[in-house]
Amino acid sequence: MWRDTSNWAGEMAAVFAKEWRCEFRTRYALNTLALFAFTTLVVVSVSLGPLGISFTQGTAVLPVLLWLILLFSVAAGLPRSFVQEEETQTSIALRLAATPSALFCGKLLYNLTLVMALAALITPVFIAMMSLTVGSPGLLIAGLAAGGYGLAAGSTLVAAMIAQARSKGTLFAVLSFPVLLPLLLLSVELTRNAVGGDPAGPVLPQLLLYDASVTIAGLMLFPVVWNP
Amino acid sequence: MLSTHLRFENLRRRFGRLSVLEGVTGAASPGELLLVTGPNGSGKSTLLRCLAGLLAPDGGTIEYQENGAPLDPAERRRRVGVVAPDLSFYAELTVRENLEFFARLRRVPPERGLAILDRTGLPLERFAGTLSSGMRQRLRWAFALLHQPRLLLLDEPFQNFDSSGERTARDLLAEHLAGGGLAVTANPSPLDFDHVAGHLELGR
Predict the structure, then answer these.
(1) How many angstroms away from the CA of A88 is the closest CA of chain B?
(2) d(CA A29, CA B42)
(3) pLDDT tens column, B67-87
(4) A18:B90 CB<8 A
(5) How far is B100 from chain A (nearest CA, A)?
(6) What is the ipTM of this complex?
(7) What is the pTM of this model?
(8) Which residue of B has its CA nearest to A18?
(9) Dihedral Cα A212, A216, A217, A221, nearest 10 deg
C-alpha cells in the first residue's frame, strides 16, 4: 500500500518536474500569462485609475476586475497543458506509461503553481495601482489561494476534456463557463469581504467545498476522458 | 508454468462510415512473432492500437494474460511495449531526460533507460527535437523496451533505420522472443525474420 502510494507520488512529481523543465525551455505559458495579465492590468489602471473611481465603487468593482484579469490570463495559458500533448503526439507515450490520476494531479500541481505565481505578482501591483485599501489582508490571501486552486483545478479538468476535440478554443470557453462561474462568483464575493474588512461568512467554506468537488470530479472523470 | 498469451477474435473497428477492421482474428504465444501485413489503409496500425489498449474496438474480444492473470485494457496499455510511427517524445528534453521521465512513469530505475540507450547507440544529451528520423526510431525502441514488456507491438519497426540500426533492432527483437516474450509486428510487406510463427494478411 505504502509502496503504491510512493510510486504514485513519484509519477506525479515526475510529471510536475517535466512540465516545469519544458516550460523553462520554451517559456510559452509564462510569456502568455505574463503578457496578458500585465496588458489588462495596465488597461484597467489607466482607464479607471485611483482617482477615477470612488472608494465605494472601488470596493464593489475592483475585486471583479482582479478576478477577470486572473481568469483571462489563465484561459490564455492553461489549456495548453493537455492540448500541446495532443498536438505534438506525446500523448500516446503518456497514455502508455502514466497512471491517469497521477498525470492529472501532476498537471494540476503545475497549473496551480502557475496560477499562484500569477496571483502573487498581479495582486500587489493591482492593489498599488488602484490605490485599493484592503481591510483584511489575511482573508484576501486565503481567497486568492482557494480561488486560485479552483481556477487551476477547473481549467485542468476542462483542458483535459477538450484536448482531443477539434474546436478546442470554442469548446474551452463553452465548457469553462458552467465549471468556473460558481468559482468566480464565490471568489469575487470573498475578495469584496476582504477589501471591505468584513468576515468571510459562509463564502470561504463554500469555496473550499467547490475546490474539493472539482478535484474529486477531475480524478473520477479524467481516466474516462483521457483513455478510450 | 503460468502462461502468457495473446488472443484476439473477430475484432471490428469503424471510423464513421469507414470500416477498417472486419472480423480480424489471431493469436501469439511466448517466443512467437505474429506478422501482420497488408497495403496502406488496411487496418494494421488500427489493429495494433486496439491491441495496445489505445483504441477501443467496436466489437470482438482481446484476451491477453501474463503469468496466468488476464489483464484489462488499462493494465494492458501500461504493460505492453509499443513502437509506432506516431509515437513522439518531448522535443524540449534531451534523449536522457525523455527516457528518465518515462522510466519514472513506468516505475523502473532510470539506469534501465540508460542501459537501453547504450544498446541503441543514441546520443544522450541531444534534444529529442533535433534527432534524425532514424534516431527517433531508435528512441522509440528504447521507450518500448524500457520496462521489459512481455508483449511488443511493433508498427513498421525497421523503418528509417540505417543498416546498423536495423541490425540492433533485429537483435533486440530476437533477444525479446528468445527470452519468452511475444510480439505482433505490422509491416507493409513480409519480413525476413526467423521467429515468425503466424501471418495475418489484412485488406484482402
Answers:
(1) 7
(2) 40
(3) 888 899 999 999 999 999 999
(4) yes
(5) 9
(6) 0.91
(7) 0.90
(8) B101
(9) 160
